[in-house]
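Reproducibility note. Readers wishing to regenerate the assembly model reported in the main text can use the exact inputs given here. Chain order matters: entities are listed in the order in which they were concatenated for prediction.
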Amino acid sequence: MALTRSDVVDAAIGILDEYGLGDLTMRRLAASLGVQPGALYWHVANKQALLGAVADRILEHLDDDMPTGDWDLRFNELAHRLRAALLAHRDGAEVVAAAHSLRTGQGGTLALLSQVLTDAGFTPAEAELAALAVLHYVLGHTADEQGHAPSETLARTAGTPAAGDTASPAGLATPGTATPGTAEGAAGGPQTSDSPLAGETARFGFGLSVFVDGLRARLT
Amino acid sequence: MALTRSDVVDAAIGILDEYGLGDLTMRRLAASLGVQPGALYWHVANKQALLGAVADRILEHLDDDMPTGDWDLRFNELAHRLRAALLAHRDGAEVVAAAHSLRTGQGGTLALLSQVLTDAGFTPAEAELAALAVLHYVLGHTADEQGHAPSETLARTAGTPAAGDTASPAGLATPGTATPGTAEGAAGGPQTSDSPLAGETARFGFGLSVFVDGLRARLT
DNA sequence: ACCTGAACACCGTTCAAGT
DNA sequence: ACCTGAACACCGTTCAAGT
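Running the prediction on these inputs yields the following structure tokens for the assembly.
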């Protein structure tokens, strides 16, 4: 049966999760589909476009069933969901960053965050800038996590969360994030597991809340 | 005369400024030095190490003649200097990001920002997290600027700054930043040049000040 | 100590030609 | 419409051998 563009993206995500971005080459992808490298170019313009499609897939359904409530609650929820979506795939943050997919991507992650802030009372220009700023923060922080941190995305497998650490801020259910590829540095580093900032989610939340506090301060 | 490691880094920066990161290959670098590709590996372990050395060079002297004063003033100064240093070389932000050079780099940009915040009264853990957060912001924002914005780093050539826009926040002299490579999108996009957030430096400063406001709010 | 020559094992992309 | 075969123009890295 003939290959489909969606098949190509599926296979790409498969390679990503199993071997990482460094091994996601057009030639390996073709091989995994049992096809010649040139065949891919019928379904996808080039590698950049493929990465864009992969990124769009990673960011799909980011705003499904969004809670209603204060802007800061919704803003936090979106940021945490974004991080969770990136963590759900090996090198997810790097892929999305490489694809420049947050600004333009189909889902419009930038637009989502921006909208919450204009609802809150910011001008469109301010809202977009602030949304971009936290987007950069989330991408950077999550890329760091995926670069050299002990994984933190099982949650479904074990009953007790790894170290008192869940991806969602409140008790809100995260969208269907399957288990990711194995992390490279599984041997725990010097994790100062006593401070209130231990746990990657808490560390992430700290930077996020500083930013949200700064935003709140300008609303008065 | 025999090549020196410093020569190699110099030549790498030359290629970077003239042709960009995409054209900075070991083979091109070797050719520009009139040497065989293999010769480079006597001076540099691999490409990653080379990029690290280039990044270190870009970030050199970031804290020369730092002003004294309130932590927020010094924090802002460092952030603006960092952006200026990145803008001083084509694809500077991407190089530094790729080199993971802010955390570990010789200069210790992370340590510098962190120190300012511990001086301000934050715990070491909080200070490092907050410093990392703005580092991510600066890198992301500046990478965006360098990716598709009309260049903004002449300042020395013309008497009147391009659009009421300088890299330094106050009248503080920036360290020796030479003129960068030409920007790719020289044709001006839809620049809404009326709002108070026009001008890349103002846009950068907005996100930065939101974060600093958030930090100040926790000091009470 | 420093570099050449030459190879190894890859890349992304194009494109005539086949079915 | 969809894919093969085969090439083009590259990569980073290694390493014996030369000087």
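We highlight two features of this model. Chain B has ten helices and no strands. The CA atoms of residues 55 and 61 of chain B lie 12 Å apart.
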